[in-house]
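Page 37, top half.
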Amino acid sequence: MLNGQEVSMAEASCAVCGAHFELRFAFQLVSLGSEQLRVCSMPCRQRLLQSVQPPRVTQESVRLAVLNLKGGTGKTTTAVSLAAGLAEAGQETLLLDLDAQGHAASSLGAKTSHGLYELLVDGWPARQCAVRVRKHLHVMGGEQKLVALELWLAQQGGQGRLLSERLGAFESAFRYVILDCGPAQSSLNLNGLLYAQRVLVPVSCDYLSLLGVKQMLRSFEQIRKAHGSKVEIWGILPTFYDRRNRMSDEAMKTLKGYFREKVLSPIRINTTLKEAPQQQKSIFEYAPNSAGSFDYRRLVQQILGNSEGSEAVYEEGRSSGGRPEQT
């Protein structure tokens, strides 16, 4: 008997970590409205309660998809760094991991047995599908389940606006929603683009990536016309920039010649950007004084629309011994 309720001693499955356990204590039952979930331990109970109680935000959310159909452009690193940087700046942020590899969620140590699959297929409330990983930062992912989710969406004819419908009022709890889209033309990416307001395109500074941008732009325009979407490209972000490499400068000139003012300051090659995910930390936590941290903090300031703040970061870098070098 737990809290006046008769509870079976049979093995249960934890709603947070998925572990099987014996239901023995009152704290292992968590009531959410008409639904009752089971958790194996107090840490899992706390994670569940944190994940379903995002703060209230009255401003309209800014929805930004990070997308490039070519892999290896720093897309996930950009999505994670942006989300972490915005949260660090005190902005309530939701990171949606739409990539079947699940690297965005795992980069920040997000561990949950439920996410986008439960949201879109099973119709779970959105608040039960996101987990808080940092102050001001929630993550909703899917990992291996996203492959099954993609197949389900295809069987349903794509359901291009299902993500928009299912997130519903939950979105209003966040000032920024960052989407890490997979490097493919897929139903899940279509959902992401039709939900987003703006698109940020990371482009690595090499010849093949420049060719891939043209293909992506054609696909982007087809989606806009076919679905009446008003989503726009907010910026082109050069990544893996190496000032010692002539190709990097040529790539920058090519991008600026075509996209002009939409080309943002580049993200330099920096080994700490590759090391941070292994420690399940953002670049700001892992190497706050690195070139990677400097470059992405500048991008965060651009997202926030604070040009004075961006310049202040640059001045701070110079006064503390110069702008961080790429390594």
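Page 37, bottom half:
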Amino acid sequence: GRILIHHIKGLVRGMDVEWSFQALGEGDYVVKISHHLDHPPFPTRILGSKLTELVVGRGFIGYIAGKTLRRIKYLVEQGRASSHI
């Protein structure tokens, strides 16, 4: 399965995110996440590519992606993923 997200506000407005999940068996999964932000909004675009990667990529996106993955894992383990992500 997969989850598609399009950000409509904030530092990453316009960014498309795809989470994909591949079952390996015995309750194990490979989870992949991809981010596409072709035209960063103001003020993100004034940071330049290196600062954007550091601040937005590792800071904001890394933090939010980690929280999201922990929530998905919790809901899947509780058997409630289809209605509460």
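Margin note: The two ends are 13 Å apart (CA to CA).
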